[in-house]
Amino acid sequence: MGRTDEEEVNLRLVERIYEEVLGPIDSGGVDRLFDPGYIQHNPNVETGAQALKQLLDRARTRYPQAEHRVKRMLVDGNLVAAHVHVVFEPGSEGFAVVDIFRIENGRIAEHWDVIQAVVAADAKNSNGRF
To answer: What is the distance between the alpha carbons of residues 124 and 111, in angstroms, rounded to a whole number?
Structure first.
């Protein structure tokens, strides 16, 4: 089954989030791509587009070489999920992240995430996180 036109547009929007905002850690694209009333579900991050811009500005200073390596994306209507390898500092193993975005009126309206360390000392298999 193929994607709808809406799903293609939504997938492209989230690709742009990684290309223009999260990848370069650039708050400049937030006003263009996120709804001003953006809802954040991560309890460690304040909600709202302004809070996201402030978080990105702090992250850019603290982790200037951070990388978001998108492994796969899934789309279902107005929801897009991305499985991402996030590395804050070169040489570190980083984190396996699943970001889920809800799109409304062509902008990111809501975000959930699940984060786990890539390395697990007590791993029961060698399949890896990706």
So the answer is: 31
**Whole-prediction pTM value?**
0.94
Residue 55 has a pLDDT of 96
Alpha-carbon distance of 25 to 113, in angstroms, equals 17
> 92-115, pLDDT tens digit by residue?
999 999 999 999 999 999 999 999
User: Which positions ≥6 away from 100 have C-beta within 8 Å?
Assistant: 79, 80, 81, 111, 112, 113
CATH number of 5-117: 1.10.8.60, 3.40.50.2000, 2.60.40.10, 3.10.450.50?
A: 3.10.450.50
